[in-house]
Specification:
heterodimer; A: 7 helices; 65% helix; B: 119 residues; rod-shaped
Chain lengths: 263, 119
């Protein structure tokens, strides 16, 4: 008999503690989300260790993939931030790889029969995770902006060459616009992963209930099956695209911080 | 994506074995050939990025507007509660938040148009 307990579309996002780490008077819970973060991080480290273990002039398969990824982000950083962007490359590359792997690993089907806490989980489908990443980016932007430009960093809020009364409107708008950046970054990644997984689960749920209904409905169950297959393909695109968008926006914000005094 | 990159790598390997029989491959020559291959490859890749980029831009622009309004409203509510001026700062906040959302959108679209590869 099929276990319908896990068939609700929201249950895949449930946070379940696996074990507790005592920390002073509190305890830190190691959850299924933490588990998949650790799996993703370990996979990235293992991949790059394997790819760079034996580097050759004419790259093998693994080395090719690693080089393509490296050059992809390296070109992105150079195009957007310019030559001084080199020092941000490690951060942007780490961010891109981590989001990409978290998104992609969330698409691995769960092995049937595992306990609920071991089910496939997408860390980036939680707003708290994506917001933490976005805040990290914005903190780097603010700290680097002040380090690089000093108080001229505030010029970011007052674009030059406007008539004086306009600043009464423009400055609040620019400030709110700046404050909304981390939220915008976080919502975008979270909403994409969250919505994609819900749609996938709904289609999959339809298959089960239509086949279960029998008769004509069982034959028509092929339709949600095709839908689920198409959405899975789309999800792979979205997983890559959202990691790319997060990286590109991080670069744009860092570029603003680096060149705030120029305009 | 895998297919697009398999070509150059494969032909690169072929070239190297051919060159290895006659003379050791010179680094400059090799990097020149590599660049030539890369040029072809980036030209081939452009249509592939087309569909995804539009979807990505749509998602980006919509969340830009949403985030602006949310921040404007939250600032309005917090300042109202602090100064006891409810509901006036909330109303101002909605207006400024909407303006900030539009500003975010115009900046995102402007930057997307500026980048040469159209991201």
């Amino acid at each position: 008999m099929i276990n319908l307990r896990a068939a609700g579309p929201m249950e895949q996002f449930e946070i379940l503690p696996i074990f507790h780490i005592p920390a002073g008077s509190n305890t830190l819970a190691f959850t299924n989300s933490s588990l998949w973060m650790v799996i993703g991080t370990a996979a990235i480290i293992a991949f790059f260790l394997a790819a760079t273990r034996r580097t050759e002039f004419i790259p093998g398969r693994l080395q090719s993939v690693a080089e393509v990824l490296y050059e992809f982000i390296s070109d992105l950083v150079r195009d957007i931030i310019g030559s001084e962007g080199r020092k941000f490359f490690p951060y942007v590359f780490t961010l891109f790889m981590w989001i990409l792997v978290s998104n992609l690993f969330g698409l691995i089907p769960t092995i049937p029969g595992l306990p609920h806490a071991a089910h496939t989980f997408t860390p980036t489908s939680h707003l708290s995770v994506t917001f933490a990443l976005a805040m990290l980016t914005i903190m780097i932007v603010i700290i680097y902006g002040f380090y690089k430009n000093g108080l001229k960093f505030f010029k970011l809020f007052a674009p030059s060459g406007q008539p004086l009364p306009m600043y009464l409107v423009l400055v609040p708008i620019e400030i709110v616009s700046f404050l909304s950046r981390p939220l915008s970054l976080a919502i975008r990644l979270f909403a994409n992963m969250f919505a994609g997984h819900i749609i996938l689960k709904l289609f999959a749920g339809f298959i089960v209930s239509m086949v279960g209904a029998g008769g004509v409905f069982a034959v028509m169950g092929i339709l949600p099956f095709l839908g689920a297959a198409a959405v899975t393909a789309l999800e792979f695109l979205v997983a890559f695209l959202q990691a790319y968008v997060f990286a590109i926006l991080t670069c744009i914000y860092l570029s603003d911080a680096a060149h705030a005094a120029d305009h | 994506m895998g297919l697009a990159f398999a070509g150059p790598t494969f032909s690169g390997r072929l070239m190297a074995t051919d060159a290895g029989k006659q003379e050791p491959p010179s680094l400059d020559e090799f990097s020149k050939r590599l660049d030539a291959h890369r040029g072809d490859q980036s030209a081939e890749e452009k249509p592939y990025h087309g569909g995804g980029a539009a979807w990505g831009r749509a998602m980006r622009v919509s969340s830009d507007l949403l985030a602006g309004i949310i921040v404007g409203v939250l600032l309005g509510i917090v300042l109202d509660r602090w100064l006891g001026t409810s509901p006036w700062l909330l109303l101002v906040g909605i207006g400024i938040g909407f303006g900030a959302g539009l500003r975010n959108m115009s900046r995102t679209l402007g930057q997307a148009n500026e980048t040469p590869d159209g991201d």
